[in-house]
């Protein structure tokens, strides 16, 4: 395309933006079963599925013992699985349906598996490491409509669907209750962190395993809380307010963000140490409860040695408060206020946390200029997706405006999804 033709915006039909549809229950079961049968022969013992997620607000707060507010997407990863008598693992995915990856759990160590199969293999490994000796090998086939690497947690959809399937076929008994699922979540997190080598703070796996339909999951990441204390279901009914939640996957080219994420975490930990608190949540709560929170924030920032650290801490502290404010605003039906909080969150992630890229900033900007109540990046940043709160029926139009601007800018074509609060992982067949 040419980036110097400026008269085409209104007249010339541009590329229609693609909307990624969720795979329906029947299709997911049929496709996963078929891939299983084609790959290994025979029928799987069952089919399970786990969703991707979008975080409504509360970004980079999970590893600071803060608050976040995800919903599960209707987009799910299906897994057809059978247990094995031995410790072998074989996995295949519709991403590359002719390639079967193999591993052996016997003697397996952290980082012992390369490529995507580290995610599911690592779940069985983590369960065994946690003492569940009856977990053995398995054959599995994955079919997914969760975009990979777009900040919508395809990795958690994969590890959580695997954890639920293994819980079921090996009779561990943790999948049936919310509190029990935390054991499976821990195995999914351990797999991502220690087998796949991808840092993750727990938001994604909790969302995939604990969200309920029609609700956002208010997740409190303070480590001292028990599973019964650390979540509450907040009604998130878009229809009630005549709204839609548009997700746009910017498809921004992959950035080398691993070091950046680790840096952000390290800066936060160092700041907490300097402030003499266990984590930045303690500092945030102290500020929130102060007679003059603005003054208290200023004093906290004044105690920090450098400008970058002040900015990172200001994001975390204000973002935790924005989660509380968003929950209140949405419950009261104050959609304007909810939208402003989306905007403030994004602006803080752009200016203070410095995790946005031009694709994210421009997508958010176009959404705002086209009538969104608010828009923000979601997920870790450095690429990935944005969300925008728009009036019912307007998602396609706003997504198209973003796609048009991306074409104009010479960016990759974005893709869109219609999000709503869907249920968590479950057995499908
Ligand atoms: P996100 O979780 O936001 O999608 P991540 O980088 O955490 O991004 O995880 C993406 C990785 O997870 C992929 O690169 C791949 O290794 C693995 N993955 C997730 N879903 C699938 C799938 N359906 N098939 C194969 N690999 C997958
Ligand atoms: Mg992930």
From TrEMBL:
EC main group: transferase
EC number: 2.7.1.6
UniProtKB keywords: ATP-binding, Carbohydrate metabolism, Galactose metabolism, Kinase, Magnesium, Metal-binding, Nucleotide-binding, Transferase
Entry's Gene Ontology molecular function annotations: ATP binding; galactokinase activity; metal ion binding
Protein name listed in UniProt: Galactokinase
Domain GHMP kinase C-terminal residue range list: 327-407
Domain GHMP kinase N-terminal: 119-209
InterPro entries: Galactokinase, Galactokinase_CS, GalKase_N, GHMP_kinase_C_dom, GHMP_kinase_C_sf, GHMP_kinase_N_dom, GHMP_knse_ATP-bd_CS, Mevalonate/galactokinase
GO cellular component terms listed in the entry, alphabetical order: cytosol
Pfam family, one: GalKase_gal_bdg
UniProt record similarity statement: Belongs to the GHMP kinase family. GalK subfamily.
GO terms of biological process kind: galactose metabolic process
Domain Galactokinase N-terminal: 34-83
